[in-house]
Write a structure and sequence with these properties.
The complex is a heterodimer of chains A (about 475) and B (about 100).
Chain A lengths: L10 E6 L4 H16 L2 E5 L12 E2 L4 H5 L4 E2 L1 E6 L2 E7 L1 E2 H8 L11 E2 L2 E2 L8 H9 L7 E3 L6 H7 L13 H8 L9 E5 L4 E4 H11 L6 H11 L6 H6 L5 E7 L2 H4 L14 H16 L22 E3 L10 H4 L8 E14 L6 H13 L10 E7 L1 H9 L4 H11 L1 E3 H4 L18 E3 L6 E5 L7 E9 L8 E4 L3
Parallel strand pairs in A: 1-2, 2-3, 13-14, 16-19
Antiparallel strand pairs in A: 1-5, 4-9, 5-6, 7-8, 11-12, 13-15, 15-20, 15-21, 16-20, 17-18
Helix pairs in contact in A: 4-6, 6-7, 7-11, 8-11, 13-15
Chain B lengths: L1 H8 L2 E3 L23 E6 L5 H14 L3 E6 L9 H10 L2 E5 L3
Parallel strand pairs in B: 2-3, 2-4
Classes of the chains: A alpha+beta (about 475), B alpha/beta (about 100).
């Protein structure tokens, strides 16, 4: 926590600067008050101003900063060291009420706005913040050598995912922490594989490095909580030889507030929020959890989404309720769903104009997920593009109707999936030859609506092993 | 003054890790012995560095090490990347000879 504020002397306290015309205007009023009562003046830029009032030098701005002076002149009434009343700028009525004096500043206009306090000057603010608030940050300070390139230095320390990082300076991390109301020392999760406790501050540091803006931080926090659950099992997702990583789907009004992309090129490059939120999560697993490729991360191929795979659902254009609502979250609430997924793959169908035909296309493509003969073991995210969604919307198909039809179409006879069938050794045990099994377990197809308005395409993101031993999709509310 | 503070704070970054490993990079472990190991001797091209390295080579061979000799084109510049990589690939240890 920041160290305590410097105490203020009892009586009246004024904060001024010579550079402010209103402060110059009210200098005679301050002299008038000083003659009548106990007045302490703090001067931000020149202790000789106002003349004859023996102002306290606050050119280091500590009093102004700590007492949150936003404009000058500010007049305070202080009792027993505690501020009880505040007037900002020059307003005769306010000043008279605060001081109990009458007829203040005869000859002056009734009202003049003040000027910005130097303690809120955008050029000075970050430095002041470091000076007065950095003690709240507990992370180890790493000093870079004078001739060390700061970007190269972060690579050299092993913190990077392979791309340059934004150096997590005290000023940047403090600014990042503005993005949440949570305390910097609050433990968010135990992060696998090392099961290291991760504080809000560590999340902020990695979010800075990833390139996040402070307003993205709540999404990163919720995503970290979601992946560090037994159900999601980030340890397994990380350690598996399969090419999966966390895929983040964001729902709720926060998508628009922070400018996430749910439209054209939704899985691609170019949107800062999409790109950096997923990256921050991956950096947390690497840096706090200690999960690095070649160590606990044993992926055979991996996939480019392990750098970052995060997107928003297009709720406004969707014929269906959002993914979050289908998973049980209240409508209109901000939330993130995490899914252990591989890279996306396109489903092209430019001719189907009725939902049955399009469902059959989807089913044919979904069947090949990981292997056409492997069933029930993997979930998927089916990202329906707007032009495909319109086909279902015009026919009045609900999300349930679509997934129900897909489950029916993907009931596979044992003769097709047992080992050896089709001349392929891979498959399920031969005892199941007389059974029929579904490609996906119930609830194993997560439908999301997203993508650009042109293109009769959808996308499928294949999952990792599902169920208790694998990973389950997890939804978490995003809290401020 | 605050600008100076900001400037100096820029050289400080906050550790993004769980802080279970030291902030300073660790050295590679020492070789347990020289028998059967390959030691590179890097001459930085300063006068009489070769005399020192010749003697070192004799002593290392006596102890069963294979010795490979390398030479920087000039002592005034860092070793070229190819040379560094060649040493890294071929040697278990390297001795870089300063001279004069």
């Amino acid at each position: 926590m920041p160290s305590p504020r410097p105490a203020l002397p009892s009586g009246l306290v004024a904060v001024v600067k010579r550079d402010c015309p209103t402060c110059v205007l009210v200098a005679p009023v301050l002299a008038e008050l000083a003659a009548r009562t106990r007045l302490t003046v703090y001067s931000q830029d020149d202790p000789e101003f106002p003349e004859g009032l023996d102002a306290v030098d606050d050119s280091d701005l500590e009093v102004s900063y700590r007492h949150e002076i936003e404009a000058v002149p500010t007049l305070l009434r202080v009792e027993d060291g505690v501020e009880v009343e505040r007037a900002v700028g020059w307003q005769r009525d306010d000043w008279e009420k605060l001081t109990g004096a009458r007829g203040l500043g005869a000859g002056l206009p009734d009202w003049r706005p003040g000027c910005g306090s130097r303690s809120v000057d955008p050029d000075l603010r970050p430095g002041l913040r470091v000076r007065f608030e950095a003690s709240a940050l507990r992370a180890r300070r790493v000093e870079l050598a004078p001739l060390e390139d700061e970007i190269e230095a972060l690579f050299a320390r092993g913190w990077s995912d392979g791309l340059p990082l934004v150096p997590p300076t005290l000023a940047r991390v403090l600014a990042m922490l503005d993005g949440t109301s949570r305390s910097p020392d609050e433990v968010v999760a135990l992060v696998p594989p090392d099961l290291a406790p991760c504080t809000v501050e560590k999340v902020a540091i990695n979010a800075v490095m990833a390139g996040c803006k402070p307003e993205y931080l709540p999404v990163v926090l919720a995503a970290l909580e979601a992946v560090c659950t037994d159900a999601f099992n980030i340890h397994g997702v990380l350690a598996t030889t399969m090419p999966v990583g966390p895929v983040l789907v964001v729902n709720g009004p926060i998508r628009r507030r922070i400018g996430m992309n749910s439209g054209g090129n939704v899985f691609g490059q170019g949107n800062r929020a999409n790109a950096t939120i997923g990256r921050a999560l991956a950096l947390l697993i690497r840096n706090v959890g200690g999960g690095r490729p070649g160590e606990v991360d044993r992926a055979t191929h991996g996939n480019p989404g392990k750098l970052s795979f995060c997107f928003a659902e297009d709720e406004e254009g969707s014929p269906w309720e959002p993914l979050s609502v289908s998973l049980g979250a209240p409508p209109g609430r901000d939330g993130v769903t995490v899914f252990a997924g591989e890279g996306p793959r396109c489903i092209v169908d430019q001719l189907s104009r009725d939902p049955e035909s399009l469902s059959r296309s989807f089913a044919a493509c979904l069947r090949t997920l990981h292997h056409p003969k492997l069933l029930m073991a993997f979930d998927c995210v089916l990202a329906v593009g707007p032009e495909h969604a319109r086909v279902f919307a015009e026919a009045g198909w609900s999300r349930e109707q679509l997934t129900q039809r897909l489950h029916e179409l993907l009931l596979i006879p044992g003769s097709e999936f047992v080992r050896g069938a089709g001349g392929i050794a891979e498959g399920l045990p031969e005892q199941l030859a007389d059974a029929a099994l579904p490609k996906f377990r119930p609830g194993g197809i997560l439908v999301v609506h997203c993508g650009g308005s042109a293109g009769l395409f959808s996308e499928v993101i294949g999952g990792w092993v599902n169920g208790e031993a694998g990973s389950q999709p997890v939804h978490r509310e995003i809290r401020p | 003054m605050t600008h100076d503070l900001l400037e100096s704070a820029r050289r400080l970054v906050l550790d993004p890790t769980s802080e279970r490993a030291p902030a300073v990079r660790e050295r590679l472990p020492r070789l347990e012995g020289l028998e059967g190991r390959t030691v590179g001797l890097l001459d930085i091209s300063k006068a009489r560095g070769d005399l020192f390295l010749d003697r070192l080579e004799e002593r290392l061979r006596e102890r069963g090490a294979t010795v490979l000799r390398f030479k920087k084109p000039t002592f005034t510049k860092p070793a070229p990347r190819d040379l560094r990589q060649e040493i890294a690939v071929q040697c278990d240890a390297v001795v870089e000879a300063l001279a004069d």
